[in-house]
């Protein structure tokens, strides 16, 4: 895919959604960090249901530590892998209190050193909470990047590096959100809704899905 096509794709995505953001609900960097940590192999909808109950009771590292792991489990037990996640959240909160005065660090190295926080989670926090132009490659972004030929790669690391190289600088801050939303609602896994896609003519996917009868 050539640079002109890539720019046109992001111009259209921007025009359709000028101020994209995560669908996870949060009001502080810490709330976002915990929500993203909980969202691994879970839906944003499911995480939001749990945090709507948790955050009014405990939304700081100190408050969650005061809850304890057993009580935290009760709040997040509807989320997949909740036992492991509860353990990681408690351990993360302890590090934040001990090393960072209860604040969320703003460097990749510090974030990735937290239990349960990998590169993708760190990228989301750096981008969404702190306005850094990172691109967290999840299953949606990986699929869209490969299917459209925007930034094809065999694994998420390759796709991330290609996106950082190919996405024009003025779009890098929001590219993460646009691509996730596009993959979640339009360029879906089984049958992409090509007939309802604002970048269909720019996409290089060869097996575009025809519109269903009556659509």
Explain what you see.
By secondary structure, the protein is mainly α. The chain folds into 2 domains: 3-19 and 135-196, Endonuclease Iii, domain 2, CATH 1.10.1670.10; 29-129, Endonuclease III, domain 1 (Orthogonal Bundle), CATH 1.10.340.30. The protein has helices at residues 3-16, 29-38, 44-54, 61-67, 69-76, 82-100, 108-112, 119-129, 139-148, 156-166, 172-185. The model has no long low-confidence stretch (mean pLDDT 95).
How would you concisely characterize the structure shown here?
The chain has 215 residues and is mainly α.
What is the straight-line distance between the termini?
29 Å
CATH architecture of the largest domain: Orthogonal Bundle
Fill in the CATH topology of the largest domain.
Endonuclease III, domain 1
The structural domain count equals: 2
How would you name the CATH homologous superfamily of the largest domain?
Hypothetical protein, domain 2
Helix fraction?
55-70%
Spatial shape: elongated
Low-confidence stretches: none
Order of helices and strands: HHHHHHHHHHH
- Helical run tally: 11
Biggest β-sheet, characterized? none
Percentage of β-strand residues: under 5%
CATH class of the largest domain: Mainly Alpha
Question: How confident is the prediction overall: mean pLDDT?
Answer: 95
């Amino acid at each position: 895919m050539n640079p002109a096509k890539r720019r046109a794709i992001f111009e259209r995505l921007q025009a359709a959604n000028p101020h994209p953001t995560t669908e996870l609900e949060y009001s502080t960097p810490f709330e976002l960090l915990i929500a993203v940590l909980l969202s691994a192999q879970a839906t944003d909808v499911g995480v939001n249901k749990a945090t709507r109950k948790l955050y009014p009771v405990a939304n700081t590292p100190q408050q969650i530590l005061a809850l304890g792991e057993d009580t935290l489990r009760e709040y997040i037990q509807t989320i997949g892998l909740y036992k492991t996640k509860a353990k990681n959240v408690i351990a993360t909160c302890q590090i934040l209190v001990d090393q960072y005065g209860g604040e969320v660090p703003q460097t990749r190295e510090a974030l990735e050193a937290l239990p349960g926080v990998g590169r993708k989670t760190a990228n989301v926090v750096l981008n969404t909470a702190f306005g850094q132009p990172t691109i967290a490659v999840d299953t949606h972004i990986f699929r869209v990047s490969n299917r459209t030929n925007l930034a094809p790669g065999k694994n998420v690391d390759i796709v991330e590096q290609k996106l950082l190289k190919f996405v024009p600088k003025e779009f890098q801050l929001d590219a993460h959100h646009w691509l996730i939303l596009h993959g979640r609602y339009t360029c879906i896994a089984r049958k992409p809704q090509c007939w309802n896609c604002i970048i269909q003519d720019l996409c290089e996917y060869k097996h575009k899905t025809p519109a269903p009868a009556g659509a």
